[in-house]
Amino acid sequence: MAFNRPGIASMSLGRPWVHDLPCKLMQAAAHGFEGIELFFDDLDCYAHRVFNGDHLEAAKSTRRMCERLGMTIICLQPFSMYEGLIDRSESDRLVNEKLPKWFTLARALGTDMIQVPSNFLGPDPQTGAARTTGDHTVIVRDLQRLADLGAGAGFRFVYEALCWGDHVDTWEASWEVVRDVDRPNFGLCLDSFNIAGRVYADPAAPSGRTPNAAADLAASLNRLRTANIDPAKIFYVQLVDGERLSAPLDEKHPFYVAGNPVRMNWSRNARLFPFEESRGGYLPILDVARVFFEDLGFRGWVSLELFSRTLGETDPFVPADHARRGIDSYNKMAHVLQWDEPAEKITASIPAPESPVQHRL
């Protein structure tokens, strides 16, 4: 039985509306990926291109494609901007209107897991007033509500701290939430980029690092190592690096977007796969990975969730190129950490398309 299984996010193979979902799924399978984190934006794009906006039919078709390709849909994501909302009517709307639709789609996709990123709604752009609360009790209560509804419908939720989250922006904070939600169907996603991106990296600094980067990351990883987290509460992990920018990400930088947290602007443009130092990767991802697999003893889905400006390029070979880069990265990690057999490439069986046409399986 395999130590771990390679997965990749659908968004990591090309931007929706630029590269179609069937092509991306075929390239993921062709390069040896066994699982896919399905982004709703990809499903939405596919629905509008092929099914007149019918998300359910698009979900059914996506499941059939994945079954034919021998791939598992790991989760549907992201169910975002939910926990800790000050506007309680919006919280109720998300639970009463959006969540049942996601249950229907996830069931049609054949997955039992929905990913929830920590809330990064930020302040009201007009008034500057806070739209989320950092009250731990409120956040936990909101997510217990989600978990309890999911348990009745047969679904799990996986919670991930984003390094630019409003209040939950470290693995420690996300683990405290998961621990206190205390539901068997509510678990943790540990992401190397978000862990190192919060305490080690500072894309706004000339050095690209926080003042005590190495020491702070080492301390954080030591806390992770000794936190007594049951590996069963880690539903999957994500391995990804970040690019060391040539200039600080300030108002003059092309990645800058007013109103967005700096780390979010960096994340959306400059993630890399592990071991891509030649492209500018500089985060100590191997140190983070060793804690995941050697100290915590995690075994399961290892997903590569990359966001990058390169995903929006119109070259039809973008999905194939990113799938190749991703599986090369996974196999290097498997070799370094002495996992069992690396993922097998079968690229010859499914060639890259000559143009980004819509496929329908």
TrEMBL record:
Listed InterPro entries: IolE/XylAMocC-like, Xyl_isomerase-like_sf, Xyl_isomerase-like_TIM-brl
Name of the protein in question: Xylose isomerase-like TIM barrel domain-containing protein
Superkingdom of the organism of origin: Eukaryota
Gene3D superfamilies: Divalent-metal-dependent TIM barrel enzymes
Domain Xylose isomerase-like TIM barrel: from-to ranges: 27-327
